[in-house]
Design goal:
Elements lengths: L36 H28 L6 H29 L5 H18 L2 H24 L1 H4 L5 H16 L3 H10 L3 H29 L6 H21 L22 H11 L9 H9 L2
Helix pairs in contact: 1-2, 1-3, 1-4, 1-8, 2-7, 4-6, 4-7, 4-8, 8-9, 10-11
The protein binds fe (ii) ion (FE2) (2 copies).
Length: 299
């Protein structure tokens, strides 16, 4: 099926209870992309705090469900909660794998957990839904950026970790409108606050990612020579800037994630193929070059 006639990815969001062989990664290099080693460190750094955000999202949306009347939105809320629960389970196990190499990873992991547990206690419901919607703006955009750069960033990489990230990014795009719709349904009259919380969430993502990224680069030896250190810094700066740049339409009053061109007329062929392949029972727990060819043929 050509991408431009594929069903809209945000219709009928499935919950896929996938369990990756994270234990089998023990002893492997956490710099898992040979195509772009900096990219693997960036995703490792970004991913460290994400499972705790996902658990926070689950609690926030579960509470918000009591206020939401629209049955379609309630169904989508159940789906995002299911998807994020499986993300958190797999990526918390992955954090333990990162801890085998990076001495500061367990402390960063603990700090991320404490931050989100604390903010579930102290923040108002509006701030919690606003932060969730703001944060999901970037997981949605990152989902599309990452899949669009597959050849440069993923083509030669460890099959299980690649499979985890392809799965995660496909699902972030599928549920990329749900938190936005919940905010609009409950607090739509506070449009300025929605925009403010996008900036708050971006700052949080950047601070957490930069902290972990430079620790991981240092441990992996990327900061030992000036050229490599510059290249690592430039990759981080350019990728985060691109994410911030792509988020600009989100500040428009007319914005809706469903209408983003990357999920309508320019759907990513990997995402389309992956959804079809997995939907027919295909094994997506490890993706090597041959498996990716099969996935693309399913599109
Ligand atoms: Fe997620
Ligand atoms: Fe998400």
């Amino acid at each position: 099926m050509p991408e431009d006639t594929a069903p809209h990815p945000m219709d009928h969001i499935p919950v896929r209870p996938l369990a990756f062989d994270v234990d089998g990664l023990a002893g492997k290099d956490p710099v898992w992309s040979r195509s772009c080693p900096e990219f693997s460190i960036l995703l490792n750094a970004l991913g460290l705090h994400v499972p705790y955000f996902e658990r926070y999202l689950i609690r926030v949306l579960n509470r918000a469900k009591a206020e939401v009347q629209d049955p379609k939105l309630r169904e989508a809320m159940s789906a995002i909660i299911g998807q994020e629960a499986h993300h958190a389970k797999n990526f918390l196990a992955y954090n333990k794998f990162l801890g085998l190499t990076y001495p500061k990873a367990p402390a960063l992991d603990d700090a991320a957990r404490d931050f989100f547990v604390e903010h579930l206690k102290i923040d108002t419901p509006r701030r919690q839904v606003g932060f969730t919607a703001g944060y999901e703006t970037f997981t949605f955009l990152a989902g599309m950026i990452v899949l669009d750069n597959y050849d440069a960033w993923f083509s030669d990489s460890e099959p299980t970790i690649k499979a985890m990230w392809v799965w995660h990014q496909v699902e972030e795009v599928e549920h990329g409108a749900v938190a936005f719709d919940v905010y609009k349904a409950l607090y739509g009259r506070h449009e300025w606050y929605r925009k403010y919380m996008i900036a708050v969430a971006l700052k949080h993502i950047v601070v957490e990612t930069v902290r972990a990224y430079f620790h991981m680069c240092k441990v992996s030896g990327f900061l030992r020579n000036p050229w490599r250190a510059w290249r690592s810094t430039a990759f981080l700066a350019s990728t985060l800037s691109r994410m911030a740049w792509l988020s600009l339409p989100v500040f428009s009053r007319k914005y809706h994630p469903r209408n983003h061109p990357l999920v309508t007329d320019r759907q990513n062929p990997i995402a389309v193929g992956w959804r079809n392949f997995e939907g027919k029972g295909g094994d997506v727990l490890a993706i090597d070059r041959e498996k990716m060819k099969t996935i693309l043929r399913a599109g």
